[in-house]
Every structure is written in structure tokens, then in C-alpha cells.
Amino acid sequence: MSLSATSAGPREVVIIGASLAGLFAAAAADAAGARTMIIARDTLPETPLARKGVPQGRQPHVLLHQGLLAAEKLVPGIREDLLNRRCTLRAPSLGSTSTAGCLPGYPRTRRSRRLGRCWSSWSARRYAIHRQTGNRRHRYGRSHSWPAGLLAVGDAYCAFNPVFGQGITVAACQALLIRDALKHDSSRAERGPLETRRLQHRIGAAADFPWKVATTEDLRHPSSSGSQPRVQRFFGLWTTQLARLAAHGDRGAYLAFARVYHLMAAPAMLFHPSLAFSACRAAVRGMPEQNPRPRALDALMRSRSA
Ligand SMILES: Cc1cc2nc3c(=O)[nH]c(=O)nc-3n(C[C@H](O)[C@H](O)[C@H](O)COP(=O)(O)OP(=O)(O)OC[C@H]3O[C@@H](n4cnc5c(N)ncnc54)[C@H](O)[C@@H]3O)c2cc1C
Predict the structure, then answer these.
(1) Full-model pTM
(2) If DSSP codes are grouped into helix, strand and coil, which group holds residue 208?
(3) CATH number of 2-217
(4) pLDDT tens-digit series, residues 155-173
(5) How far is the CA of 19 from the centre of ligand 1 (A)?
């Protein structure tokens, strides 16, 4: 997206891409009173339909709780709307994109792969194959030649392995940062390259933790192309232990996991002393009996194989 300052009258924001990151950014600019133009490659359908530019639109998406809160701030009433459209809400007990091709060519900083390079989805009894599903991040805004007023958000800045369901949430959180910058800091955000780079840096920071989660998990996979630093390896081992505790009915481990995964708590929560105590107890006494497999899951598997 691109911000431009005018001496008088409303500010202008041009957004490239009308998928979720673009639309969240448009809602953010609108809330800040800017005049917004969206440039879309596809003709947008009247009703919700998958289109060429957003092939993943064919399959159900997970929205993390933090993403739901951010989306509700940007588009008040969206939660109700989603529920009315039969989205399932699972609150875990909690208290732009492919347009990267349009931006100056910056190198990918890290990439790992899981499940090969494709992700298949089952929808209406048909498989859809998606490629380019590795974690991909561009460090836009670091170069001194980065143009003033140009910001990269959503998958254009950082795309995650879809297995983790983080992309929409990060895009919504980034849009909130843009809204606040335009509202409270607008003249500075638009003034020059330095301010643009600072805002881009804050936008990038919103992806930091989800990026760690996705890459830590993916680097454990034998087919991934990188190696894990020691700290990351330790983090991976510890979260595996917590996942086992959670699967065996440890409520503390489950809640810590759910809150951190849904970006509702800092990762430090995973290192709470009570969890270390539970892990030690399980090491001495053995794990409690495993939670039974949900009946609904068995029914779903049966209906799929029928
Ligand atoms: C298979 C799959 C499953 C996923 N599952 C989840 C999930 O469960 N939960 C989750 O949070 N995230 C998921 N994601 C990620 C999520 O879909 C994206 O993070 C989210 O849609 C935000 O993407 P975006 O708007 O940045 O980019 P995209 O959705 O890729 O949209 C890019 C837009 O830019 C347009 N465009 C591209 N080039 C141009 C151009 N030159 N000019 C004009 N317009 C252009 C395209 O037409 C499109 O409209 C999944 C992704 C994939 C691939």
C-alpha cells in the first residue's frame, strides 16, 4: 500500500490487492479518514467465491482469537457476521500477499518447507493443490532506498505455512498499526523515508512471533532446508513435552498452549514454573491417561471415507 500526503483535504491511500490484507488495510485507512483506492487484479464477484488471485479462498480458514479481536476493531460487527454465516467459534478459554511481485526485489530471508511444497484441501469432495506454502519473509523497509509512503503488509511481507493458520491474524494486526499511525501520527508516517521505514519495521514486528512459531515447527521436519539453532531446538523439545501433557488432559498446559498459539499471551507463559512442575511430575510418575479421541472426529472420518 502507498500513503501520500496532500497539503489540504483528505489523505490518499492506494492499496494493491483486494484480498484480506488489502481489505483490512482499506478498513484501517477508512477509519483514519483517508481517501482509499484499491487496485485489484481480479474482477470481484458479487457473492463470496474463490477467484484466480486468491485460490486458497476455496478452503476453510482458521482465524486465531487475536485475529478475531483485531478484525472486530477494524470492521465492527464482523464476529456476528461470521457467526451468522455459520463459522464455528472455538474460543480457547481466553480471558497483501502475492503482490510481493510488485515490490522492489528483496531477498527471501528464510524458507522452510513442510508437507513437501504443496497443501491439499478437501472441499466438496475435490482436492485443491496449493503450491508455495513454505514460510517466506521479505525484510522490506531495511534498505535506505526504500520509497517513502510504501508499505508491505500481509503475505506480501510475510507468508506462513498455512498449517499454522496465522496469515489473516497477522494481516489484521498490521492493519491496526496502520490505522493508528494514520490517525495519531499521520503527518510523520507520510513525511519521509525514515518514518515509512519505522512504520514498516513495526508492521514487520507484528509477524515476529508467528514467524518463530512456524519456522521452529517446520525446521523440525526432516525435509526442511535449514538447521535449528540450539535455543530453537530446546524450545521445540519443550513445546513437544507441553503438547503431550495437554493431550493427556493437563489443563494448565492446554491453556498455555492455546493462549500463546492464539497470540493472546506472551511466549514466556510456556515457561511458567507450574508447567515445569507438571513436566517433572509426569517424568517421575508417568503421563496421565490420554484424553479420548473426540467422537465428532471419528464421525467426520467415517463420513469422509463413506
Ligand atoms: C492453502 C492456504 C491455506 C491458508 N489457510 C489459512 C488459515 O487457515 N488461516 C489463516 O489465517 N491464513 C491462512 N492462509 C493465509 C491467508 O490466506 C493469507 O494470509 C490471507 O488471505 C492474507 O493474504 P493477502 O491478502 O496478504 O494475500 P492474498 O490472499 O494472496 O491476496 C493477494 C491479492 O493481491 C492481488 N494481486 C496480486 N498481484 C496483483 C497485482 N499485480 N495487481 C493487483 N492485485 C494483485 C490478488 O489478486 C489477490 O487479490 C492460507 C493460505 C493458503 C495458501
Answers:
(1) 0.85
(2) helix
(3) 3.50.50
(4) 999 999 998 999 999 999 9
(5) 6
